[in-house]
Design brief:
The complex is a heterodimer of chains A (228) and B (300).
Chain A lengths: L10 E11 L5 E11 L3 E5 L6 H8 L7 E6 L2 E2 L8 H5 L2 E4 L11 H11 L4 H15 L14 H13 L5 E5 L7 H16 L3 E5 L3 H7 L2 E6 L2 E2 L2
Chain B lengths: L1 H18 L3 H35 L4 E6 L5 H13 L3 E7 L1 H10 L4 H5 L9 E6 L4 H12 L4 E6 L2 H42 L1 H9 L4 H45 L10 H30 L1
Helix pairs in contact in B: 1-9, 2-7, 2-9, 7-9, 7-10, 9-10
The chains are: A alpha/beta (228), B alpha+beta (300).
Chain lengths: 228, 300
């Protein structure tokens, strides 16, 4: 697989004294200090409203902290310019609700999109996309609309799109929600496989089965605070 | 380079695909752009044609000097010599009576009348151009010329041309304003069209942004959409004006025969048409750029 490239071990994400609150809202994260190394597999756990998704979004540079610093792949997300941000995003894979599946695009078009954005030539991109679709088990659906796929296959497509450009970081928010046990297990196995290729995988999940299967470093949040 | 061109080719294909999906929305926009551009184009063409006609039939204020019927060839020569040395005359043209008669015979509708004449009723004449075109100088010269021997009539018949020229200048200024206003209208039409496109493809734009697309990448297919919209709109305007000219010229041919003036408007020159297409494409691209910039700003 093209993305099975080991990467040097280093601090990839570092959060220092991070506080976050939404405008007019209460504090969501309180004094978070955290370091994540390259190649780690992390699972953010905690009850609903504990701040898992917010922390994930801060680490994925989708939001900026109210105060404190978030360093991702050597870049301070609060001070980096808007023109630099796309290049950081290309080093990340996102499996979030925000990154929707597009009904009028084929499965292949979804997987080609990150490669087009990265400026990969079409021939290499197609080979790379096919390889990843094969990895997630969707190679027979290349010309299908994502809307014709099952929930599990749609999630596989999201994963394929997130990893096709060989990101160094993969973020997934509740990746097994609404999936049956078999699909959830398959997705868990896929994450493990991706992590073994060297990609740092950071999940936010309630799913105990996924946690057991994935064997990640657990980071527990409770009312916006890290639990020691 | 190949990858760069390939990215542009894909963006163009996306733009063309969006043009036909849904087709009705694009068609309405194209017709609006076409008719909006056709109006100043047609006005410009008519004014240009009128200007050409005015220049042909009265390029500058001229004085027509007619000799008396009984003036001899020697007296005609003497007047010509005086005109040659006159400080206020820039040039002149002689029209001997025989030549004037031949020209009259050649004119439509006059041949029969001329054939019935026993002798040439036309006088020898001079058409004089002056250095100074002011009304006072022309009047003074007219008086001076009238005093010369065997000069029968002196006409300074340029008022109508001057009035028409003033009207044409006013028309050109008005056309400039109209073209400016309608260019803004085209911008607005493209802007609105692309706004609708952005709304229809909002999810796609968001996803591209989250996957690391730069604004240039996101903007590219919309810019092509704007260029294509402008280009086809310009083509429609060209077609509309050409079709209108065909209809209009059918009527003008009859009018031309009555007045013996070539009133028929020539077809749109190629350079005008190409200029129109370029201008329309640029307006389309500019409208698209502004529209996507607004959308991206709002999204941010």
């Amino acid at each position: 697989m093209p993305y099975l490239i080991p990467r040097p071990h280093m601090n990839q994400i570092s959060l220092n004294n991070v506080f976050h609150r939404y405008p007019g809202g209460k504090e969501v994260l309180h004094n978070i200090n955290l370091t994540i190394d390259a190649g780690e597999r992390i699972c953010l756990i905690g009850s609903s409203g504990a701040g898992k998704s917010t922390l994930l979004r801060l680490m994925a540079a989708l939001e900026q902290p109210y105060s404190g610093t978030v360093i991702v792949a050597g870049h301070n997300t609060s001070t980096m310019s808007t023109s630099e941000l796309p290049y950081l995003r290309r080093q990340c894979g996102l499996i979030l609700d925000d990154v929707k599946l597009l009904p009028n695009h084929s499965v292949m078009a979804h997987v080609l999109l990150p490669l087009d954005i990265a400026g990969i030539d079409r021939q290499s991109a197609q080979a790379q996309a096919l390889s990843v679709l094969e990895t997630v088990g969707l190679n027979q659906y290349t010309e299908h609309s994502p809307m014709s796929l099952s929930g599990g296959d749609q999630q596989r497509l999201r994963i394929a799109r997130a990893i096709v450009h060989q990101p160094i970081l993969l973020f997934a928010d509740e990746p097994t929600t609404n999936l049956d046990a078999d699909d959830a297990e398959a997705i868990g196995a896929l994450f493990r496989k991706i992590n073994l290729s060297g990609t740092t995988v950071i999940l936010a999940s309630h799913d105990r089965q996924l946690v057991t299967q994935f064997k990640p470093r657990l980071i527990e949040l409770n009312h916006g605070k890290l639990r020691a | 380079m190949k990858t760069y061109l390939s990215a542009h080719w894909r963006a163009l294909k996306t733009a063309l695909y969006r043009l036909y999906h849904p087709p009705l929305m694009s068609l309405v926009s194209l017709l609006m752009i076409g008719t909006t551009l056709a109006l100043p184009l047609a006005c410009g063409l008519i004014i240009h044609h009128l200007q050409t006609l005015t220049n042909t039939y009265s390029p500058h204020p001229q004085i027509n000097l007619f000799m008396a019927q009984d003036a001899s060839a020697t007296q005609f020569k003497q007047i010509e010599q005086r005109l040659q040395t006159h400080a206020g005359v820039s040039s002149y043209r002689t029209i001997p009576r025989a030549q004037a008669l031949e020209a009259m015979k050649a004119r439509t509708g006059w041949a029969d009348i001329m054939a019935g004449l026993t002798q040439n009723p036309l006088p020898d004449a001079f058409i004089i151009s002056t250095i100074d075109h002011s009304a006072a100088t022309l009047d003074a010269l007219r008086t001076e010329l009238l005093a010369w021997p065997k000069v029968s009539t002196v006409q300074v018949d340029t008022e109508w041309a001057r009035r028409l020229d003033s009207l044409l200048r006013l028309g050109r200024s008005a056309l400039g304003l109209l073209a400016g206003a309608l260019s803004i209208t085209v911008l607005a039409i493209v802007f609105q069209s692309i706004q609708l496109q952005c709304m229809n493809h909002r999810d796609e734009i968001d996803v591209q942004g989250l996957l690391g697309a730069t604004n240039t990448f996101i903007r590219r297919p919309f810019l092509y959409f704007g260029y294509v919209l402008g280009l086809i709109g310009g083509g429609i305007a060209w077609g509309l004006v050409s079709a209108t000219l065909i209809v209009l010229n059918t009527e003008l041919v009859q009018l031309s025969a009555l007045y013996d003036i070539p009133l028929s408007i020539p077809p749109l020159p190629l350079e005008w048409g190409l200029g129109l297409l370029c201008a329309a494409a640029i307006l389309g691209g500019l409208g698209a750029y502004l529209s996507v910039a607004r959308h991206l700003w709002n999204t941010k």
